[in-house]
Write a structure and sequence with these properties.
Layout (H helix, E strand, L loop, with lengths): L1 E4 L12 E3 L2 H11 L2 E3 L2 H34 L1 E6 L6 E6 L1 H11 L8 E3 L3 E3 L1 E10 L2 E11 L1
Parallel strand pairs: 4-9
Antiparallel strand pairs: 1-2, 1-3, 5-7, 6-8, 8-9
Amino acid sequence: MRIILKKDILPLGYKNDIVTVKNGYGRNYLIPQGYAILATESALKVHAENMKQRAHKEEKIKNEALELAKKLEEVVITIGAKTSSTGKIFGSVNNIQIAEALTEKGFEVDRKLISIKDAVKEVGKFTASVKLHKEVKVDINFEVVSE
């Protein structure tokens, strides 16, 4: 079943992408929830016209994301955590704490866009990736220190 996505659905695709999914997933979940529409011939024509009109807006959004990415590459974040005497953290550092630290530095980044490859459970320097646009991804260095 071919559908046109109305919203970004992370493992599937981005808004306005035409994707193929299993019939049950499309009919029972995506279309009733309003996440997608069926890719009929008329819907594809409307979609093509909308994409022509949005091309300029998308370029502007991408350029803004690239500018933000350049600024974020230079930022180094320090996150304080309670630790044991051996340097292990009680709990772990997650994307919420990184998003809060970025907000303190003056960058508004949604926590859902931040991903950490491995769980951070000790003091040290680590890297998190931020997906600002479907074509723009930036790595942020952060350091976890003992409070």
